Automatic annotation (TrEMBL):
Record key words, sorted: Cell membrane, Membrane, Transmembrane, Transmembrane helix, Transport
Transmembrane segments: 12-36, 42-62, 69-88, 94-112, 119-141, 161-177, 184-201, 221-245, 309-327, 333-357, 369-389, 395-417
One GO MF term attached to the UniProt entry: xanthine transmembrane transporter activity
Subcellular location: Cell membrane
Phylogenetic lineage: Bacteria, Bacillati, Bacillota, Bacilli, Bacillales
Protein name: NCS2 family nucleobase:cation symporter-2/xanthine permease
Similarity field: Belongs to the nucleobase:cation symporter-2 (NCS2) (TC 2.A.40) family.
Membrane topology recorded in Swiss-Prot or TrEMBL: Multi-pass membrane protein
Source organism of this protein record: Mesobacillus foraminis
Gene Ontology terms: cellular component: plasma membrane
Length: 458
């Protein structure tokens, strides 16, 4: 694996930040107005969010004794928290939210060892199907951005779609025709070109940069001393456990692409880091974090697996949280440009998950039923979550989440029809190896190459 220069490390880390930035700031932008925060408080909420993302990322990637998955896993606020945080915030204010986030993080950290024991119930057919649901679920996010961003007055404008298509084509050309480092940063390069074209078209908003201050001092409990309500804590604890279930599949994905066998203890360390991260996040006025699927797609796409790259991204996020003026630069990337770049990244999750599922015997009736019902239920619920709107709020939060419901069905059906396997679970959820590596393997093992497409690799 290539030793990256400081400049390359910085660019690769910044690429990760650009990929997750829109999602990272979306949660506070949605939650803030909904629970009555002022514009100034929302700006602070975004800064605290970025700071917490950076801190939690470093905990997860660097790790320590008994904590941290130590894989290139970038952490960010999960979209799952939006509805419950708004519900809690309207009743118990932002301080009630922070209290619930902190306690739920403590609970996850304490039970991480037991959640990790779920690993044997996630063989390739289950984990691959979960990632397939996640990948399909993320595609509408990319398309909404491509059309101009949710709530945009120009949503669906042909200019937006043209800009997204331009960014997508730029990525395809750069990724296909270039080699080495430029190939690895093809997503970032495409976004730079897309933003330049957007500037020429008058579609770049520089107000976020011009109005941002130069320094923001971290302020624990900025919104006040946390309050602790039992119903709020129960709600956020359920949400945190849901996030943990999703994270297991993501850990398996990263383990495969990094050529590392993920065991129960590894999962427990990763989930423990998420729990501790939520506790810290609550102190620094943010929400529950999870391993961001978008960035896993980027790792699959670029094949850059060095932890140092994500550590650099974590440092950049901390900087963004401390220096809003720097963060303002990333707000200049138009939503259509982000959407055009998201499509291939999310698509990589789909492609890789299919390769993982293919490891199972798909002629076996039980496996066909597992995939059909698990993926079918997950996507059906994802498409119409309001079908459970008349259920109690706690039930609605769980039953209306397509990824969670799909995961439940997959795990239960697999346990009933195939039983619990005691094998080691190294999941083959990865992009095809680079052509140069295939040629080397062919020389040594005389394998067939004709049906295996090349992908990016440093």
């Amino acid at each position: 694996m290539e030793n990256l220069s400081k400049l390359k490390m910085l660019m690769l880390g910044f690429q990760h930040v650009c990929v997750m930035y829109g999602g990272a700031v979306a949660v506070p932008l949605i939650v803030g107005p909904a629970i009555g925060l002022t514009q100034e408080q929302i700006v602070m909420l975004i800064s605290f969010d970025l700071l917490a993302c950076g801190i939690v990322t470093l905990i997860q990637v660097i790790g320590g004794k008994g904590i941290g998955i130590q894989l290139p896993a970038l952490m960010a606020v999960s979209f799952i928290v939006v509805e419950p945080v708004i519900a809690i915030g309207k009743v118990h204010s932002i301080t009630g939210v922070m209290g619930a986030v902190m306690v739920s993080g403590l609970i996850v950290a304490l039970v991480a060892k037991y959640i990790g024991k779920m690993v044997p119930y996630f063989p390739p057919i289950v984990a691959g199907s979960v990632i397939l649901i996640i990948g399909v679920s993320l595609m509408p996010v990319a398309m909404r951005n491509a059309a101009g961003g949710a709530g945009s007055p120009t949503f669906g404008d042909p200019k937006n779609l043209f800009l997204a298509a331009f960014t997508l084509m730029a990525f395809i050309l750069i990724n296909t025709l270039s080699k080495g480092f430029l190939k690895a940063v093809s997503v970032l390069a495409a976004m730079v070109l897309g933003t330049l074209l957007a500037g020429i078209m008058g579609m770049v908003d520089t107000s976020g940069f011009s109005q941002a201050s130069w320094f923001n001092m971290p302020a624990p409990f900025y919104f006040g001393i946390p309050t602790f309500d039992v119903s709020a804590i129960i709600t956020m604890s359920i949400i945190s456990l849901i996030i943990a279930v999703e994270s297991i599949g993501v850990f398996m994905t990263l383990g495969e692409v990094c050529d590392r066998d993920i065991k129960e203890d590894d999962v427990a360390k990763g989930l423990r880091a998420e729990g501790v991260g939520s506790m810290i996040s609550g102190v620094f006025n943010s929400f529950s974090h999870s391993t961001f699927s978008q960035n896993v797609g980027l790792v699959l796409l670029t094949r850059v697996t060095q932890r140092s790259v994500v550590i650099t991204a974590g440092g950049i996020l901390i900087l963004l949280g401390l220096v809003p003026k720097v963060a303002g630069l990333t707000t200049m990337i138009p939503a259509p440009v982000l959407g055009g770049a998201m499509i291939p990244m999310f698509g990589m999750l789909l492609s890789a998950s299919l390769g993982m599922i293919a490891k199972a015997d798909l002629k076996k009736p039980s496996n066909q039923i597992i995939i059909a019902l698990g993926v079918g239920v997950g996507l059906a619920v994802k498409g119409v979550p309001e079908a459970f709107a008349k259920f109690p709020e706690t039930v609605h939060l769980i039953a209306g989440n397509g990824v969670v419901m799909g995961t439940f069905v997959l795990v239960i059906l697999n346990a009933i029809l195939n039983g619990r396997s005691n094998k080691s679970y190294q999941h083959t959820l990865s992009a095809p190896p680079a052509q140069e590596n295939l040629e080397l393997a062919a020389a040594k093992e005389e394998i067939e190459l004709t049906d295996v497409p090349p992908t990016a690799k440093i």
